[in-house]
Design a protein that fits this description.
single chain; 92 residues; 3 helices; mainly alpha
Length: 92
């Protein structure tokens, strides 16, 4: 009984971390998309100072790096969850 409760809690904790990482990735992806549109839009681009344009490019690069890291994290949490589910199934 205690082991079953432990297994459930582990799977639940992994799922929660997966959800948090996925939500963060979605939030950063939206922010990246907004910056990308500003950088690509001719009208918007013309209104930006050179310094602001460079700042937005750097922000976009940083967001892209963080999104890539989150994709890796999401894959790891997904694999950990699958391992837990496979072990739980094997023990039944």
């Amino acid at each position: 009984m205690k082991m079953e409760k432990y297994n459930t809690r582990v799977r639940q904790a992994i799922s929660e971390r997966y959800v948090v990482a996925t939500k963060e990735k979605c939030k950063l992806s939206k922010e990246y998309e907004d910056i990308f549109v500003r950088l690509q839009s001719g009208e918007e681009k013309d209104k930006l100072s050179y310094n602001k344009y460079i700042e937005l490019e750097q922000k976009a690069d940083e967001l892209n790096r963080k999104i890539s890291e989150l994709k890796i994290e999401i894959n790891i949490w997904d694999q950990a969850r699958e391992i837990c589910l496979n072990i739980a199934d094997a023990m039944l």
